[in-house]
Amino acid sequence: MPEGSERGSRGPGSARSLIAGGGLGVPGIAIAITVLSAALSAWVGARLLAGGAWGRQPGVDESSHSLRKVHSNPTPRVGGIAVALGVIWGLLSAGVWQGQMTLGVLLLVCVAPGLLWGLIEDLSRRGAVLVRLAFTGISAALGFILLDTRITGVDLPVLDHLLAIPAFSFALTVVAVAGVASSINMIDRLNGLSGFTTLLAALGLALVAWTVNDAFVFTAACAVAASLAGFVLVSFPRGRIFLGDGGAYFVGLVLALLSLMLVQRNTEVSAWFPLVLLAYPIWETLFTMLRRWRHGVSPLRPNALHPHTLVYHRVVRWKRRSATASDTTRRNSTASLALWWIPAVCFALAVAFWDRTGVLQLASIGFILVYGFIYRRIARFGVPRWLVIRVRPGQAPVSPASAGAKIVFVNRFFFPDLSATSQLLTELTLDLAERAEVHVVTSRLRYDDPAARLPARAQYRGVTIHRVWTAGFGRFCLRGRAVDYLTFYFTCAVRLMSLVRSGDVVVIKTDPPLLSIVAAPIVLLRGARLVNWLQDIFPEVVGAVGIRLFSGRLGRLVQRLRDWSLASAEVNVVLGDTMREVLRRRGIAERQLRVIANWADGAALRPSAPEQNALRGEWRLSDRFVVAYSGNMGRVHEYETILGAAELLRASSRIAFVFIGSGVRMRDLKAEARRRELDLSFMDYQPRESLAQSLGAADLHLVCLRPQVEGLVVPSKFYGAAAVGRPVIYIGDPDGEIGSVVRRFNCGIAVRNGDRHGLAKAIRHLAASPDLCRALGDNARSAFEANWDRTIAAAKWADLLAAVSAQGLPAPAFGAAVENPAAVLADGP
Description:
This protein is of the alpha/beta class. The longest helix is centred in the N-terminal third of the chain and has 24 residues. The N terminus and C terminus are likely disordered.
């Protein structure tokens, strides 16, 4: 027998909480991961498949007004892909925790033939009945051989005697398992009917398996139930996707094999338990075959007299004759709801009396009698008045396109967060919101306070904010940050699928990294237009700072996926010429690259005399020459040169070093400064309304960057310093993006990394030369007003988005009119 096949028994520990794993020996976290991974995978897969622009393509059921098909719109019938994906993820995660990976893999191998043939039928729209029975029979035979799942007894003396013969047991097992798969397919005609029926069946298996301490069947049934729940949330009530032949065969085979495993491995479970649990689809199939045979028709020939079809046509009736396509869908779902009580009753009876064969046998007989009575009344137009459900036709829903296209920005942080990327995004969206519908998908966190939880939905000056849940481990631990990223990927993807519509423009930033890989398929499937706004180039940037997570084959794979997401965009906005050159070398077309540098708000940040700055007095710096570093101190930044210069200037009491902000390396910087006994000042991020005072408190600003990340990142803190008219010392490659700007506009000094003597000399020289310091600051402000003011950047972004959305958003609504949108896309910075 395969691993884990020993018979279970109810033990004293089985009364423990199901969430805690009960007496199964399965950790509660394992159950949670199994359920969550299965549900999310199926839900996301179903949304993607349902949201695709399928048109008249393979895998789509065209709208039909025949008696057998009762839907009004072309509908994808490949939902089995999503359900199978969810079950696979669930089984694999359960196998990892339980150490029963082999059993899960064998189960998937057994059902693979039925799934594959069902998908072929879904995609080709053809399939002979005998062939499908053959493939589902192969799956059943594989289960018999590989999993030892067989019918050994049904508590009926004659059959039990025959089942002692291996050949008869094999034949009956194959017929029964293949029959269950076909029965699920037969009821897959109404929105949510097959999904709800099989969901209840999986929950019933899970509950009984938990009761008898069968760990594998329990976790596998939980995976199936969670996957089906994710699918039903998409398919019902709007009928956006069908389970399809592949999904029906897959779910039916899995449920049949798990049922046999549960009964065979646990003698106290009645063989009639799965029969009652799945009584509705099983008896509908047998009843249909008997009815056809009685009327001299082949049992394999389809017709329109299935009970669920009759319920749709004869039980659920219109209050008025006229009806739209959406009303037909509503009627379809109402008919499905009218039938849900049948599997619900079967579920209740099976779970309540799972170990009492006599009661289950009586329940089966009663079900057959009631079923036959109701069918006879409906088929003969004798529907009781109390059974009739009347649906009032309503108005057709408004097409999403009629509401107009919108701009959707995606970034992990947004207002009121004070990080640099958050402030840039806030300013841009506020400018665009004056003339267009703007949405932002972001997290509920703040960069400087991982424990904060902002409201899930908000409006801010015309911008609609959608905040999704993420983990909040913070940025100081790589593993915790990875969990934060992964949870944001999931929740952001879910939000985008419900928010984005055809014609929208979706702008993806690079926090968290590789967000474009997650968002691009969703944006493209939804028929929207993709714009990538790159603040850095990942994963090259992490390799450059010594993190080898994306080295070797994994790194090359991630780079290819990243490049695909960039190539799929209408345009990719980069921060400078060096960054554009890096992407050009990666094969991104020149026409898809546009340079728009970061900026600052020149109206809010204006030059002022240092002696008039209130913060200098609060910080007791009024009579000193203040050298400031303002902003994030991350892994791409280098502080060793700054500390070396501070040591050399220790004796100069007039020179004060002030660090404003935070970051993963700010903590290390503080520790190193204490170790060297340096008198440095550290301040938290200042409120947005105090930013002008904070930046203006300095006489000189420092901007640093490791040379190996040049072209992969552009420090945005330079633009704030230039806005308040302060000179900048750039510590990095003098020929890099900021180094070149400093030289070109004569607004500061560039010093190479590690040159602490050169940095100390430059600071000492500027501290002793107030006129030179003031002249460099004036040059910085002049260059800022000509190149990096908020109004300039907003106009560039407005023109760019007008070009991208030329068919969706009117170009004149974004500032200057765009006569030739194509020229804007091809234009340089």
